[in-house]
Fold these 2 entries.
Entry 1:
Amino acid sequence: MSGGITPQLAGVIGWPVHHSLSPLMHGYWLKQYDIKGAYVPLPVAPQDFGRCVAAMPLMGFAGANVTVPHKEAAFALAATLDEDARATGAVNTLVFEDGVVHGRNTDVRGFAASLAESLGEDAAKRGPVAVLGAGGAARAVLIALARAGAREIRIVNRTKERAENLARAFAQSSNIRTMAWGDWAGALGGAKLLVNTTSLGMTGKAPLDVSLEELPREAAVADIVYNPLETALLRAARERGARTMDGLGMLMHQAVPAFAAWFGVTPKVTPELRDVLVKALARA
Ligand code: ATR
């Protein structure tokens, strides 16, 4: 609803949630599109998640984003699931409509849109893709890559079993191989795209120690981490002359369908919005 009499509310449920850029991003769009609404951070402990979500429609919420550690709980709780929520087993967006809690996953579309925008529509098709990590984020990235036409995907993960489980799930759509963590020559040799889906390299986490030696010069490198904006991986890639994609694009693009569902306007991802977020990251 845009410009109506009843303010529309939405928010992000997490634990912790104070670091989230989503209130700033959705607040920017609310102002830009002159919508009477608000988007607030909602710190909710895991044991309270179900009761809190049940109360939100009663308080006028149109929906909410769901972040760590609630994405699987949101998946279990939602009455309906969209295709990407079913495929990932995780819900990052709740939409409340006529007493029904709808669960959606917009991370897949967020990564796909960012990839196309930053590295081109054919980024996944140019040759083998190496994916670091096999967690929830990796699953969303793999779905997007398979959909974007990746034919050969190499999953590199510390825990082999997790990589193999993920590989089995994608065996139908792509040629998937798993590689040992540290086998950088095997994983990156001949690859045309490298994607980090782990949280390594994020401020406060352990560094991501990858040797890019074997990565072809023309390969592109993407990181879903956006804090810092230029991770050590992206810096190393840039210094080799590779094209890079940081994590802010995915963050902004995953928010578009959520905002549209709650507030009735499809917002635009613009350089100005990116600037607002970059400045906030610099202040944090
Ligand atoms: P998310 O849902 O955000 O992807 P996750 O499911 O906990 O989070 O996955 C985190 C990913 O980072 C996993 O691939 C994890 O590897 P394991 O499957 O071996 O746990 C990876 N990861 C985390 N810390 C790591 C480390 N110190 N070295 C290598 N990989 C690490």
Entry 2:
Amino acid sequence: MNFKPRDIVDQILPHRTPAQNQAKAYAPANIALCKYWGKRNETLKLPLTGSLSVSLAELGTHMQCRIAETDRLEINGQMQAADSKAFRRLFSFLELFREPGTHFHIQSTNTIPMAAGLASSASAFASAVNCLNLLYGWELSDRSRSILSRIGSGSASRSICAGFVEWYCGEQPNGMDSYAEALDETWPAFRIGILCLSDAEKAVSSGVGMQRTMDTAVLYQSWPTQVARDLPLLRRSIQDKDFECLGKTAEQNAMAMHATMIAAWPPILYWKPESIRTLHRVQQLRAEGVAVYATMDAGPNVKLVFLEPSQSDVQSAFPEMQVVQPFGSTCQD
Ligand code: 2P0
């Protein structure tokens, strides 16, 4: 059977009667240490492999939803046209959850710098599901909210949880076993550094990019093998607090993902000269003894991972970097 998003939503939702007139919720953005790159089912956004991320604490999306006369969407205070990409994508998702004739006024505020290419769909769809869960009084589990968010955008499945999060690939055709869960580990000294190198809109969306890579890159055949190696290494390095292993694995995973994109046709080359300069600078810092590693997503920006004791060295090399503490502050802060 070919399951549709509506079939899955019907299975999960207890009812479609709002419990209140408005609700507010939040979800963080996330950065993958082992990337999600390729789907086995486009409609349900089922991934070909598992992935593992870290959520960005206070950097994400605050969403407010009010029952209204007509559908309206404000992002960071700006009203969005009904035929804009953001409006159409969000409301076709919200349509899955409400009775015909119900309308929403959505106000969404991103605390993540839009220019970083990080104000992704992940925190938007996860915050929308969190918001509807309150508005309708569904009291859904993390697992159910993760499955529902995934239908909006794959990586949104991971934005339901804080800290380190693993999204299971699953194998059921209805995707009920493809959800994300937080790892039971904290690492207070863990830091993410965000570098805004370019705010140009990307020419190839990640959804189109992953499909083209699967369809045309012979190198993509190696991607599941890469993930099969990297996921256990990352889980173990988080458990053992082995930062060198975590950093190496995350950087290599990101470079391997980009290698598959570059091997697609037409090639998907998100890198800008500034991205490459940054990657070289990271290598140079490591040669000088600073434990810092890089990761990149479907865009030219570079995100750094390091531990609190290296923060001043990394910050001196990249003064414009915004530092995120996924597990709050350490005693030394
Ligand atoms: C990730 N990316 O794991 C990877 C790395 C981009 C590169 O998750 O098509 O925007 O909506 O499921 O969630 C971006 O993918 O794609 C993404 P859809 P989504 O973070």
